[in-house]
Amino acid sequence: MDHSPQAVPGKGSINLRIEAATRQLIDEAAAILGKTRTEFMIESARRQAIDVLLDQRLFALENADHAAFVAALDNPPAPGPKLQALMQRVPAWQRDV
């Protein structure tokens, strides 16, 4: 499935069923911010989605930590016996069934 921006139509809809207490909570929060329920829910969901995706793709390091990270990538430890054994195994997709 293509999740690129070009594959997403201009607008769509999402139908939700929520408990009355949750709906009231959302409505109260939206009103405090001067937003509609829809605006509030879209902005909240979008912000959460961005946070989740960034958490999986982005991390920040101080200069010294970044240097140590790059050094570790550039100088990995020698393969141990478990990795060597794993690399000698025939992959499942190449085994005779």
UniProtKB/TrEMBL annotation:
Keyword set, alphabetical order? DNA-binding, Repressor, Toxin-antitoxin system, Transcription, Transcription regulation
What InterPro entries does the annotation carry? Ribbon_hlx_hlx, TacA_1-like
Q: What is this protein called?
A: DUF1778 domain-containing protein
Task: Give a yes or no for keyword Repressor in this entry.
Answer: yes
Against Pfam families, the record matches this protein to: TacA1
Q: Record's SUPFAM superfamilies?
A: Ribbon-helix-helix
Q: Which family does the similarity line name?
A: Belongs to the TacA antitoxin family.
- What top-level branch of life does the organism fall under? Bacteria
Task: State the organism of origin.
Answer: Novosphingobium pokkalii
